[in-house]
Amino acid sequence: MEDGVCSRIYVKGGGGCSGESGGGGGKGSGSSKCGRWNPTAEQVKVLTELFRSGLRTPSSDQIQKISHHLSFYGKIESKNVFYWFQNHKARERQKRRKLSLPQQQHFILPPSSNLQRMFVFHLLFIPQFI
């Protein structure tokens, strides 16, 4: 290891670094600097405030500035900021969809419903006189 940079290779989905000695080095052990980025509470607070203030897709210049500012609270890279905003935006979208779904559900009929078949038949074969 040189200058605090992990010299081992991170194996995606493997839960740690290849070349780790022993079974440790996982989450919370503090023995390895490889693996996923774990934001500090301060970093999450700043990122959340930026998101709530309307910043949804920061430019690469903004990402650089944000990651520089957040580096005072702990280890962070620009890609962490980029992916945080991407993930946060996607989760917000999921929440909105989930919240709007119950209001729409009472209009959706199961595919095998006779009522739905009649409705489709009515739409397709009975001419509308308006």
TrEMBL record:
Q: Which Pfam families does the record match to this protein?
A: Homeodomain (PF00046)
Domain called Homeobox: residue spans? 30-95
Compartments in which it is found = Nucleus
Q: Which GO CC annotations does the UniProt entry carry?
A: nucleus
GO biological process entries:
plant organ development
Matching entries from InterPro entries are given as: HD, Homeodomain-like_sf, WUSCHEL-like
Q: Which residues bind DNA?
A: 32-96
Q: Which domain of life is it from?
A: Eukaryota
Record-given protein name: Homeobox domain-containing protein
Originating organism: Cucumis sativus
